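Researcher: Hi, I'm a grad student and pretty new to this. My advisor asked me to get structures for two proteins we've been looking at. I'm not sure of the right format, so I'll just paste the first sequence and hope you can take it from there.
Model: That works fine. Here's the first sequence with its structure tokens right after it:
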Amino acid sequence: MSQPPAPRDDARQKRLAAALRTNLQRRKARDRSGRDGEADVDRRVVRLIGLPSDSNSSHRRGAAKAPAVIRAALYSDAGNAAAENGLEIGREIVIDDAGDLGLNEDSGDDALIAAAVTSATQAGQLPLCLGGDHWVTAPALIALAALHGPLNVLHFDAHPDLYDELGGNRRSHASPFARALEAGAVARLVQVGIRTLNVHQRAQALRFGVEQVPMRGFSIDAVPVLPSPLYISIDLDGLDPGAAPGVSHPEPGGLTLRELLAVLDRQQATLAGADVVELNPDCDASGVTAIVAAKLVRELAAMPGAA
């Protein structure tokens, strides 16, 4: 008989998060890794913004619980703070964890999300959002486009999330990119991992000129290297359920984690922002999807474009 999971030490997690915030409140960090012969490279502070919202989810709620478990995995002593390129949180990478927004699960949340990513950007920081369902990407994109101009977006997902509406909800987690495109916030949208393209969303993709790299016949080289300003949105169900089972809409035949990381590794553009969304802790009995989400946070924070 399997043993129940050990209770999470919430006090320890809070102490560790507080220590990180206290120790990492300098505005610049130095990259002393010597990569490519560069000894001293200024890097932006990365501001983590928790968005505990799932009222725009269809089928199954639970994603609002995700920011807390992603943080627990990120700060856990089960692993360390290094990204694969050798940069480390607490050394070269400075994290300013802003905690979770006090969202109300209504349309007014869009303004709160917009204000949070705007504040981070105006402070010279990189906004990295922890969802939450995928609707939260729309207000973030629209707000950042108001600062940077229309964004190039690299979107990992099993689903295009281009519905005009779903169940009468135009703020559905199945509709964020339709709203952002209508608002003129997106210059170019590249979707990777798509494997559920129905008639309506195919028509929407044609309408908006969306570029899709489907899983059928997938090749890493088929994903373009996008210019600045770049926004990266990672819906965890873009990964195969074998790698990320803890999602509300698992879709077999998805990306491996290594494929997703390889696509990220090719991108060099300056990041305007990023998000990791659609973890559902209620579906993540082993906790492995939270660990994957935390790894993706580290890798996004360590990207050249995050500097």
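Researcher: Oh nice, that was easy. Here's the second one.
Model: And its structure:
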Amino acid sequence: MSATVAQHIVDALADRGVGQVWGVVGDALNPLTDAIRTHDSLRWVGVRHEEAAAFAVSAQAQLTGRIGVCMGTVGPGSIHLINGLGDAAKSHAPVLAIAGQVPTDEIGTNCFQEVDNDRLFAHVAVWTHTLTSTAQLPYQLERAVNAAYERGGVAVLTSPGGVGMLDMPDDAPAPLVCAAHRGAPSAVAPGGTGGRGARQRWQCDDPGGTECPSRPRRGAGGGRHSEGSGGGDSQGQDGHGGRQSLPSGSGRTAR
């Protein structure tokens, strides 16, 4: 039986050391929260407000050096994440926010609770992208995680309603994330003082190698993507500073 997009994302995050996902459940996130519910090692941490989830993963990332993951769904949930993600951006903490969205065929129609997440998060995120097909995985998930680590900030991956339930191809590869990105930061970035507000930098042990995410990958797919400016540069670079070589239940029932 083929894994769904949601199961693929959840399995990949667990394989990369993520132990908890914080957030508020909602319709567009149902495939993801259900995949977490049935996963052996990943735990869902429900909160009363998405802002609390974003602050929690920001603190978690700063204390552990591992990427923190939070979720909010559609307009209200996504907007509520902003404050905590702003804290992560200012602290250069590696955070992945997965945002729910209205169904793909309703994007751009002024649908109820629709918000353009890529524009919404542009000022706090170093990377944003809206998934529209299975062809964009695992490449875009790789880019999200590696951008958050290497550029020291927030990556936002948006999943429209229905996309999470799509079946992945049986031969879909696992995302490539450097082993060095699973632990604490190796050094402060050049120019940093190591004091308050210093930017941390995660180094790759094998840049350009077969297991390095900077290695060119094919099948990036389409979708909407942008390099943000929140806490990182906006030069459209990959996770290792080089130019890209590829084209670019108890929740709120209204969501």
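Researcher: Is there anything I should tell my advisor about the second?
Model: You could mention this: The CA atoms of residues 188 and 194 lie 6 Å apart.
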